[in-house]
Design goal:
Conserved hypothetical protein from pyrococcus furiosus pfu- 392566-001, ParB domain; about 35% helix; about 160 residues; 4 strands; globular; 2 domains
């Protein structure tokens, strides 16, 4: 196998018609927003294509780039993969291995726009995040203590 990384025109890249991964309109809108607000991320997360320029990894990023009006992207071009290796890559690249540690998210990342970044949080967890308008005493403490029933995050 040989791999080459270079900037290519989006018009050279082909969506993979056999891609088993789907994305909702809301998710594609979030991805467009993410790419627009943090374009440097696309330099770190290339679109992976085969020698025919058919996407193996990054169909949704490709769609989001096009929707955002971009004309080029960084592509990693892999040549010499067997059809079986291509299929294996497509599935493994899209497999959701692992799960979020809700305690770690709440305690170290809870003040960040996680859902905007694509993290699917339980709906009730989002409803339990403290209201920014809650009264705070002179020591900087909220007037009551609350706890998320899912992850135990306290505020």
């Amino acid at each position: 196998m040989k791999v080459e990384t270079k900037k290519v025109r989006l018009s050279e890249i082909k969506l993979n018609p056999d891609n088993p991964r789907q994305i909702s309109k809301t998710q594609i809108d979030r991805l467009v927003k993410s790419i627009t607000e943090f374009p440097e991320m696309m330099e770190l997360r290339e679109i992976v294509v085969d020698e025919t320029m058919t996407i193996l990894g990054g169909n949704m990023r490709f769609r989001a780039l096009k929707e955002a009006g971009e004309k080029e992207a960084i592509a990693k071009i892999a040549t010499g993969l067997t059809p079986e290796q291509k299929k294996e890559f497509i599935i493994k690249d899209n497999a959701a291995f692992g799960e979020w540690d809700m305690d770690a998210l709440a305690n170290a990342w809870g003040d960040l726009p996680l859902t905007d970044w694509g993290v699917d949080l339980p709906e009730d967890w989002m409803n339990e995040i403290p209201d920014e308008n809650k009264s705070i005493d002179e020591a900087g403490m909220a007037d009551t203590e609350n706890e998320c029933p899912k992850c135990g995050f306290k505020w």
